[in-house]
Specification:
Elements lengths: L5 H12 L7 H13 L2 E5 L6 H12 L3 E5 L6 H5 E6 L4 E6 L6 E5 L6 H4 L3 H6 L1 E4 L2 E4 L5 E6 L12 H4 L2 E6 L5 H11 L19 H12 L5 H13 L6 E3 L3 H17 L7 H12 L4 E2 L1 H5 L4 H11 L5
Parallel strand pairs: 1-8, 1-9, 2-5, 5-8
Antiparallel strand pairs: 3-4, 6-7, 10-11
Helix pairs in contact: 1-2, 1-3, 2-11, 9-11, 10-11, 11-12, 12-14
Length: 318
Amino acid sequence: MTVNEVPALAAAIRREVGKAVVGQDATVELLLVALLAGGHILLEGPPGTAKTLIAHSFARATGLGFGRIQFTPDLLPGDIIGANLFNFQTSTFTLTRGPIFCDLLLADEINRTPPKTQAALLEAMQERTVTIDGDTLSLGARFTVVATQNPIEQQGVYPLPEAQLDRFLFKHLVDYPSAEEERRIIAAHGSRQSVMTPDDWGIEPALDADTIAAAVDAVAGVRLADEVIDYIASLIRGTREVADLDSGASPRAGAMLAGAARARAAIEERDFVIPDDVKALAPALLRHRLILSPAAEIDGRAIEDVVAGIIDTIEVPR
């Protein structure tokens, strides 16, 4: 597969997801970039903004095996990865795999479970493996986590540990639809008497695992000029030199930003990365990796404003 074929695949996925989801174009775009860059994505927004429907529809459109975990305060790590259970009939232990064994995992309301349970995803998200009683099991090269969470200001939520947040390629803020989009949602979904699945909406797989693998290989060949590499490095290092931030982005964030920029360039039918690719993706890639200083929090600064200020101060290569 060549880079020129990637935009057609992206358009096919958008078309299939659009059969069920009204609007949310920015969310679908970041999901496409995450898929091609091999990253995970965290969706934050109020209940009822189609976060779960988007993830389920996206999995169906990409042909990925779908799994879902509803995170609750009493969920245990073994409920996610599975365990070796003793069979009294055979007097042997049998591996019972948890719902994490899938291609695309929807971690629904991930911040409603304590950090101890959230930590069950750390190895899976970083290495795409899980370890059960000393045995390491592969989750597959396409394993992707699409997590949803409610805003931290809501009741009954736990903050995600920094180590887990850093494993997400993007954190995207899902907002309410526009007035016209909301009208279309009511018209399309208001007559439904029960929850509709992607199959009910007529969503068909637009590609398969082999096609995704070929597209990922094509994205890896997108050129990244030295000037753009320097721009990414300056942007990441700039987050560590701002008084409003107590903690800046890690070197891993820079490597992730480069891979995501390659994916965006391929979707835009280019075989080279331009600074606009980096600028467009930087807010979603950085917002969950940066920690405001106490003074900035007291002043009511928003992390998005700080990121925008950093982007504005870094000289863009020509």
